[in-house]
Amino acid sequence: MTKIQTIERFIFERQPHTAHGEFTNLLYDIALVAKLIAYKTNRAGLVDILGRVGVVNVQGESQQKLDVFADELIVRICDHTGRLCVMASEEREDIITIPSEYRKGAYVLVFDPLDGSSNIDVNVSIGTIFGIYRCKDWDLRGRLEDVLQPARDLAAAGYILFGASTMMVYSTGQGVHGFTLDLEIGEFLLSHENMELPEPPAYYSVNHAYYERWSSNVQRYVRWLQGQDGSDAPILSSRYIGSLVADFHRNLLRGGVFFYPAEIKKPNGKIRLLYEAGPLAFLIKQAGGYASDGRQPILDITPANLHQRVPFYIGNHSLVKRAEYFIGQDE
Ligand code: AHG
Ligand code: MN
Ligand code: MN
To answer: What is the value of pTM for the model shown?
Structure first.
């Protein structure tokens, strides 16, 4: 009989013998968050949760109720556990400090509470992305510099996908592992151990409606992906959901490249370095792939501010390297 592995058991069995369990427990906290958001999203059409709240977040985008719910839930579950020194959320302007009545911990949590929020109202997959860093200074309560670390220094990263089923996928730097929520027993069970990007890749994923906004080099890259430019072109099909987690997850399983390029009027594109690009770059490396801003590895970029955006190319090594080649050409 195949072994049934809960996420708790899997995380526990892999923690180093010297560990105090703080980090392990932080991953359990996130698994709990995942179950609660999954429960809420599954009921999204039933209760009065759909529709925009009417407020605009720090990125200038209108928030929806589930974004607010997910953001507040993560903070409520994680602020008093003694495992964190500071947090940062895509939905909040400033860092989230740990209230002084609670013990401070050794880790930093960054998160995009609900990614792909334009898809909530239409019952299409959405997700949560998280990254965990180590606090830089033990003596102090968390500061901005604890959060502004390059993704190469992540201790762990992952996402939760609220799709046809709910999955939690994470890496602590020892491979990428996926767990599927069994609704009957309320547990995440190991379903995808050691995920690796397949070759040859199957898909490219980009919002084609923005073609005219891209540089001619990006346009040439897209034509190459389509097989119009050169004999070494890959044979790909196209898929784009508009929820980064869902697009990333599909391409992780099937192979491919997702990109959100710089636009002529938006030179940094749309994707946020700290909450989206960084954690996914950490995961893709663990799965044998590569992530770039078109010129350098995402893993090497130290964020200058919390909500910094970055052009983003992620997927199979050969496809992302080819993007760098085209982008590096003279215009
Ligand atoms: P968020 O919902 O957290 O603001 O992120 C949305 C992002 C990302 O999920 C997706 O890849 C991208 O926006 C889609 O943007 P377009 O609609 O411009 O293609
Ligand atoms: Mn997002
Ligand atoms: Mn979001």
So the answer is: 0.94
